[in-house]
Amino acid sequence: MNWQRTLIGAGLALLFAAMLVWTTLSQTSAECTVCVTHEGRRECSTAHAATRDEAVQQAQSSVCGLLSNGVTSVMACSRRAPDSINCTP
């Protein structure tokens, strides 16, 4: 009886892991690399997301976090047009 519970538990765990991997991979259909120059420094970052716009926004947010020293600087950086955007669908 214990081996049946163990087998069922292992099967459910495998099913959960498979569903988690599938949903994660299906939501990242766009990959974008964004480069930004802010306060004399240039950085690039890559992000994966469900859409191109979301990937660009996430990559720029990441870059601005690296380039900025405070809230005001982050806001100014995030309003800048990126130097380059390279996306793959």
Walk me through this protein's architecture.
This protein is of the alpha+beta class. The chain has a domain at 30-88. Helix content is 56%, strand content 26%. The protein is built from 3 helices and 3 strands; from the N terminus they run αββααβ. It has a 3-stranded antiparallel β-sheet with strand order 2-1-3. α2 (52-67) packs across α3 (71-79). The mean pLDDT is 87.
Largest sheet: 3 strands, antiparallel
Low-confidence stretches: none
Given the C-alpha coordinates, what overall shape results? elongated
Strand content: 25-35%
Counted beta strands: 3
Give the topology string: H per helix, E per strand. Answer: HEEHHE
Work out the radius of gyration.
20 Å
Distance between the termini: 50 Å
Helix fraction? Answer: 55-70%
Mean pLDDT: 87
Major beta sheet, strand line-up: 2-1-3
What is the helix tally? Answer: 3
Structural class: alpha+beta
Secondary-structure map with pairings?
Blueprint: H1 2-26, E1 30-38, E2 41-49, H2 52-67, H3 71-79, E3 84-88
Antiparallel strand pairs: 1-2, 1-3
Key structural traits:
26% strand; single chain; three-stranded antiparallel β-sheet; 89 residues; alpha+beta
Summarize the structure.
56% of the residues lie in helices and 26% in strands. The chain is α+β, with helices and mostly antiparallel strands and 89 residues long.
